[in-house]
Design brief:
The protein is of the alpha+beta class. The chain has two helices and eleven strands; from the N terminus they run ααβββββββββββ. Among the domains are: 41 residues, no CATH class; 90 residues, Rieske Iron-sulfur Protein (3-layer Sandwich). It has a four-stranded antiparallel beta sheet, with no helix packed on it.
Length: 189
């Protein structure tokens, strides 16, 4: 920076006397403030190796399989995921499979939303399950009524029989999750 110049005369060109000591020019002050801001930003973005105790530079809670926004975790309720997303009603069945819902809780010709799944009974004794996230904008469906699964965000509707699109802007049906009846419970197949 070459703006700082020493003057040997006792007056400014406008005739005002100079003050003793150096007054920082505006550019120097702004440059210093910018450097300070950049330093703070870089310090905030860094990670401390003493806080996690591990070797993960992204922190101890980093996962290489990020979850969709608003979900309860990377594996919650998706096919092949962990058992975190299902219903806790009834505990595990005799075979140790994850209980999704009780057979008695799923009405014939309708369905229920349990965890991250929509479980339906399109005909007596036939149970289906679908991912509850709408394929249009990622909103969770919120209602099963009149033979359709409804999304509140943009009005998409899906069949309780196969998850196919019945109406609305959704580009494709809800992904099916294979289920079976195990005693009095519906479990993942």
């Amino acid at each position: 920076m070459t703006d700082v110049q020493a003057r040997t005369d006792t007056a400014h060109p406008q005739g005002e006397p100079t003050r003793q000591g150096a007054v920082a020019p505006r550019r120097a002050v702004l440059a210093g403030a910018g450097a300070l801001g950049a330093t703070c930003l870089l310090a905030a973005c860094g990670t401390s190796s003493s806080s996690g105790g591990g070797t993960n530079p992204s922190g101890s809670d980093f996962q290489n399989n990020p979850a969709p926004a608003g979900s309860k975790g990377a594996d919650a309720g998706f096919p092949g995921g962990s058992s975190k997303g299902g219903s806790s009603k009834g505990g595990d069945s005799g075979g140790g499979a994850e209980v999704l819902a009780a057979v008695a809780d799923v009405p014939k010709g309708g369905g229920v939303i349990q965890g991250d799944l929509v479980i339906t009974q399109p005909s007596s004794g036939t149970f289906k399950a679908f991912n509850k996230i709408c394929t249009h904008a990622g909103c969770p469906v919120n209602k099963v009524d009149g033979g359709v699964i409804s999304c509140p965000c943009h009005g998409s509707t899906f069949s309780i029989e196969d998850g196919s699109v019945k109406g609305g802007p959704a580009p494709k049906g809800l992904p099916e999750v294979k289920v079976k009846v195990d005693g009095d419970n519906i479990v993942k197949a």
